[in-house]
Amino acid sequence: MHSLEPELRALREEGLIDDATAGRALALDRGHVFSMYAELRATLYAGVLLVVAGVGIILARNIDRIGPLAIVLAVALIAVACAVPAVRAKSAGRPLPVAGEYLLLLGVLLVSADLAYAERQFALLGPLWSWHLLLLAVAHAAIAYAFVSPLVLAAALTALAGWFGVGGTPGDLLRVSYSEAEFGARALACALVIAAWRYADRRARPESRFSDVFDHFATNLAFWGVIAWCLEWPWLAAGLPLLAALSYASVRRGLESGREAFLVYGTVYAAIGTCAAVLPFLHGATLSLGFVLIVVCAAATALWRLRRRLREPGP
Amino acid sequence: MSQWRPSPDEERWLAVASELGAAVPHAALAERTGGWRSTGPLARIALFGLGFVAAVLLFGVLGFGSETMLLVAGVIATLAAEWLAVRKRLYASGIEEGLTLAGFLMIGLWIAVEVLPAPDHGDTSLHALVVIAAVGAAGLRRLNAFVTTCAGIGLIYWIGSTVLADVLDAVTDRGMTAFAAGCVLAALALALGAREYRRPAHDRMLDWLVATLPIAAYSQYPRVAALEAAAVASGTGTTRLIVVVVLLALGAVMLTTGLKRRRHAPLWGFLGCVVAIAFELRAAVPVSAETWLIAWGLVALAAGVALDRYLREPRNGLTSVSLKRGEGPLDLLQIAGSALLAHRSAPEAPSAEHGFEGGGGKFGGGGASGRY
Q1: Within a 13 Å sphere around the CA of A45, how many CA atoms are in the beta-carbon half?
Q2: How far lies A47's CA from each of A51, A99, A101, B113, B298, in Å?
Q3: B36 contacts in A (CB within 8 Å)?
Q4: Which residues have CB under 8 Å from B322's CB, separation 6+?
Q5: What is the per-residue pLDDT across B68-115, written as a single tens digit (0 to 9) for each?
Q6: N or C: chain B end with fewer CB closer than 10 Å?
Q7: Under a CB-based contact definition with an 8 Å cutoff, are residues A60 and B368 in contact?
Q8: Which value does ipTM take for this structure?
């Protein structure tokens, strides 16, 4: 164990921190106040993950034994039941508790799996099946707004990205089956929609809790799109200037808002994009590796310097 | 004042600065921290990765084919890290940590390949130990808890690969020696954590071991690799009972210690024990994979809901409410995790006979396909 009590006391005695700050820091240091928020979230996330995985296997394995309609109805019923705590909190005028939010997320994911299963079994929309993703995005977004849940909003944005043809995880970048240019255009279009949505949300509700989620989705998607463009000539001609502009915007956003995640995006994605653009034109392993080494060193230096300028803690 | 790394006092002031953030004037702490400069958690992770990649690229530039270049690249990376620490006064900034880890690792690999005698009858345990020692030394040099924990987990793997472990496992069950060693190390780290340490980094190193070793030790146990009941049930009844009893005991000690000391690490260790017990009980109650997943998922959700309700109003200082504001790595993980789950459960493209043209949706997740 270690305690920073002597240092905190010294700062208070010297008048460098006020009594309230010192009191709060000392209470945390002594363990008089102890939050189990992280452990709680991990437990709830594991619960959601396991249930969704189990339901997924049931949907895949037990079609013949139970019957598709029964499965669809049962899963829908469970999904509705998951929303009960959130509905109760909302009707009582209380903010959504952590557990209620994760249960709501479970309900939303079960609805997604249920719809996916129904679509596969009954081919409800036929060749227009991908509109299910848009429907899901709209439905999830409505639920997210109704219960003010950033987690459900993340699910909505993932469905929206899926509708645009951009997977929800970085791994999807590695198995692009369109041409890079098409993937890039789709990702950029999706990022633009999300950015516009964020702007509208911020204007309508200045105290919105969703801005962070919008920002992360839009930034990552935009960078994925631009990097995809950097991989293919002649899109490279548009991709490189866009990469520079996006990196600048991301870094500037990070510096203005004091959020280092955007500094990381701005520098690391810029390094990846630069390597993606230049490496195809270099011949020989040593030259290529040397170039990447220079880019990596430049990115590290830039990130370090930018982080020092951030309006954030640190001596 | 040391040139090589912050003194305990300087490190404590760095910890205070990190804890209080903007609440305390930077200038007031600059002198007390000895001019050492640190960075935030996300930038540190990114810089760690960049530093490590840079060192590996350096090896590539010098020539992947030559073992001597391992040593040259390792020494250059290590010297670069030392230069950043001594001249630029970087501490816990990521870049020097990544460079040191890669540098030490390459030097360790060079010793294993070039200095040590060739493996005798395929026994590479001494060579592996040298590499693990190199990782441990890098962690201790930089006071980096993540790296020392990697070395600790590597040590458990190494113990499980020794001839002595093979002999002991023949008497008990496969993986039992490594499992026992992991549990002993976790208990030892927990006991040592009761001491008061001047350096916060030393405390953090023990914390990381306490949090990760239970699950790392259990993962040595081969049954964990399979989710199918038949594979899980392959062990003998006696060893399973011993494993469950050990995990229960360790978990109980972790939980009580975590609550008593008000520390997170033992609570994470306790959660690791619960996961291990859940796997082990799967053999005792042979049910289908989906039933097992849903049952334990519901248990986790029920526990979470109960805990949230119970601690919504603080009890004895314990609360389920977040005490920190702002965006940390865990908040980002939460958003990413939610997106990942949504990705897995969303509709996927139907087979070709449906004549899919669609709006572009290309999800390849689980859901109806059951690819979990």
Answers
A1: 21
A2: 6, 11, 13, 45, 6
A3: 315
A4: A35, A37
A5: 899 999 999 999 999 999 999 999 999 999 999 999 999 999 999 988
A6: N
A7: yes
A8: 0.88
For residue B9, report the phi and psi dihedrals to the nearest 5 degrees: -65, -45
Phi, psi (deg, nearest 5) at residue A34: -145, 120
For residues A82 and B2, give the distance between their C-alpha atoms in angstroms, rounded to a whole number.
Answer: 57
For residue B226, the model assigns a pLDDT of: 52
Q: Would you call the peptide bond into A234 cis, given omega within 30 degrees of 0 as the criterion?
A: yes
Please check the confidence at residue B204 and state whether its pLDDT lies above 90: yes
Query: What letter represents residue B198's amino acid?
Result: R
Chain B nearest CA to A9, separation (Å): 11
- At position B29, the amino acid (one-letter code) is L
Concatenating the DSSP letter of every residue in B331-342 gives: HHHHHHHHHHHH
Q: What is the number of CB-based contacts under 8 A between chain A and chain B?
A: 397
CA-nearest residue of chain A to B33? Answer: A315
Using a 10 angstrom Cβ sphere, with 0-12 exposed, 13-18 middle and 19 or more buried, the burial of residue A88 is exposed
B161: which DSSP letter? H
Residue among A37, A40, A260 minimizing CB distance to B40:
A260
* C-alpha B164 chain-centroid distance: 26
Structure tokens at B256: 């009580």
The crossing angle, in degrees rounded to 10, of helices B145-161 and B163-171 is 60
Q: At B53, give phi and psi (nearest 5°).
A: -60, -40
Cα–Cα distance measured from residue B331 to residue B140, given in angstroms and rounded to the nearest whole number: 29
Q: How far apart are CA B91 and CA B137, in angstroms?
A: 16
Give per-10-residue mean pLDDT for chain A (315 aa): 89 87 88 90 92 85 73 87 89 87 91 83 76 89 92 92 73 56 90 95 88 93 93 88 96 90 95 93 91 96 91 45
Q: Determine the 3-state secondary structure of B123 from DSSP.
A: strand
What is the torsion angle, in degrees rounded to the nearest 10, for the CA atoms of residue A293, residue A299, residue A305 and residue A311?
-150
Best CA proximity match to B343, nearest among A159, A117, A48, A110: A159
3-state secondary structure of B227: coil
* Among the ranges given (A158-162, A231-235, B42-46, B53-57), the one the predictor scored with the smallest mean pLDDT: A231-235
Separation CA A272–CA B49 (nearest Å): 13
Q: Hey, CA dihedral for A229, A232, A234, A240, is it positive or negative?
A: positive
How far apart are alpha carbons A256 and A306 in whole angstroms?
A: 12
Helix ranges (H only) for chain A are: 5-13, 19-30, 37-61, 63-66, 68-82, 84-91, 98-122, 131-147, 150-164, 180-204, 211-230, 235-257, 260-278, 285-309
CA distances from B26 to A264, B16, B20 (A): 23, 11, 10
Measure in Å the smallest separation between the Cα of B222 and chain A Cα atoms. Answer: 21
Q: Which residues of B touch A83 (CB under 8 A)?
A: none
Whether B214 and B247 have beta carbons less than 8 Å apart is answered as yes
Give the integer Cα–Cα distance in Å for B253 and B187. Answer: 9
Q: Give the Cα separation of B170 and B77 in Å (integer).
A: 43
What CA–CA distance (Å, rounded) separates A131 from A152? Answer: 19
3-class secondary structure for B258-311? HHHHCCHHHHHHHHHHHHHHHHHHHHHCCCCHHHHHHHHHHHHHHHHHHHHHHH
Which residue has 């023949």 as its token pair?
B170
Q: Which residues of B touch A286 (CB under 8 A)?
A: 60-61
Measured CA to CA, the distance from residue A95 to residue A98 in angstroms comes to 9
Across-strand partners of B319? A35
